[in-house]
Description:
By secondary structure, the protein is of the alpha/beta class. The chain has 3 domains: 3-198, Rossmann fold; 238-358, Cytidine Deaminase, domain 2; 390-521, AICAR transformylase, duplication domain (Cytidine Deaminase, domain 2, 3-Layer(aba) Sandwich), CATH 3.40.140. The strands form 6 sheets. A 6-stranded mixed β-sheet has the order 10-15-14-13-11-12, sandwiched between helices. A 6-stranded mixed β-sheet has the order 18-23-22-21-19-20. A 5-stranded parallel β-sheet has the order 4-3-2-5-6, sandwiched between helices. Helix 8 runs antiparallel to helix 10 (169-198), helix 12 packs parallel to helix 14 (321-327) and helix 18 (482-491) runs parallel beside helix 19 (505-515).
Amino acid sequence: MSTVKIKRALLSVSDKSSLAELGQALARHGVELVSTGGTAKALRDAGLVVRDISDLTGFPEMMDGRVKTLHPKVHGGLLAVRDDAGHMASADEHAIGMIDLVIVNLYPFAATVAKGAERDEIIENIDIGGPSMVRSAAKNHAFVAIVTDPADYAGLIAELDANNGATTLESRRRFAAKAFAATAAYDAMISSWFAFADQGEALPETLSVPLRKGAALRYGENPHQSAALYLPIGPSARGIAQAEQLQGKELSYNNYNDADAALELVSEFRDGPPTVVIVKHANPCGVASANTLIEAYEAALACDSVSAFGGIIAVNRPLDGPTAEAMSGIFTEVVAAPAADEAARAVFAKKKNLRLLITGELPDPARGGLTMKTIAGGMLVQSRDNGQITRDALKLVTKRAPTEQELTDCLFAWTVAKHVKSNAIVYAKDGSTAGVGAGQMNRLESARIAAWKAKDAAEKAGWAEPRTIGSAVASDAFFPFADGLLAAVEAGATAVIQPGGSIRDEEVIAAADEAGLAMVFTGMRHFRH
């Protein structure tokens, strides 16, 4: 059946926005309105004639409203196949009238959880009758229209006006698809709450992840790949996906990925001094902390100004005009900041292709949560790498202990290395990276590449020596052989921070002692693949 004339509509909503306008439009087309509780009152307050659901079913609403629509005269009217003689004979025998339109949105479960409600209140906000009606109507979309989103009311009204009070099959199919997605997401939120919040499961037997499309992207990592940004439905931590874009063209898949990497790293310093992170292809190519944001930017840029071209910048302080002016000196894809003053916004307004993202409060680096990665035939899921090391947790393994400055540089380098693709080597000195070696197949090459970058940066800047001289070096995992450590010695490092745990630890420690290095073990690894 292509078009279906709407003769009776059942309305039961928790979100009453635009309800009166919808009710008036239905009444204009002669539709009988059947409703429940607060929805019926809202419609009557708008001057509309409404039939109570209890009058339709012959049973009162009971058990504090838990039982009102779970009745054959509701679901029979929704599920009856109108061109099936047997179905219609049963409907006539039991005096079941047809329902042609259902307007339902569900109890605010997510909002109830988000406000910190007690368990009993959360349980009471698990909708039962609503999803049942939604599913019944959606299953029988050949004859019944189901609308779950107030944003669709205007389109429904326009269709009724254009078709003399009837809906089209095309619209009913579209509404049904959206309805099943809504109940699936709703159930996913409930199952997630039970698993994580109520039962305290870290990795539940069944993992449901409710997401909605936030934006269609132009393409994925490459132009032949399609892509979209999906946002969590229900309570979640804020991040780069929720940032406000003030200017520039639409963000690409790669922009989101790189900006996320930059924001996650700079968030490690959210309670520290002004810090700037520059990222290229999801790896930091320069990180620095200083007394001012502009000083931090200049130090971060000096680490690898070649890679910074076309990169992503994230800062942990509100962006000011002078820093924005300095950042405008090279081509930058995205700048992410908690806020930006008018001077900074005016500077970037001249760079029409630069995307300026305002993030608000930075994410908590110690927060929990899961990360997911698809593999052929499945999904890998793990807890977030929110491990952090304090000075007191470090184990001195060499004869020489690090100086206070060396220890500070070790912890800075270690924090950055956590966000560098493995195998990761990071040299740091005086609160800024001196060289970064990322993603190599062996640790020795990462150490050499980071040193080479530092030497190249020194030559470009006209410095007398690279900043790796007198630096601390961090390795995201243990040195399996002494060769990687010796490459760091050759680069001028004087202190080392690494997890330890290799079968050759004694060999590596002996090499460090022979070179006069101070070395500490963290006992924690930060692989990042």
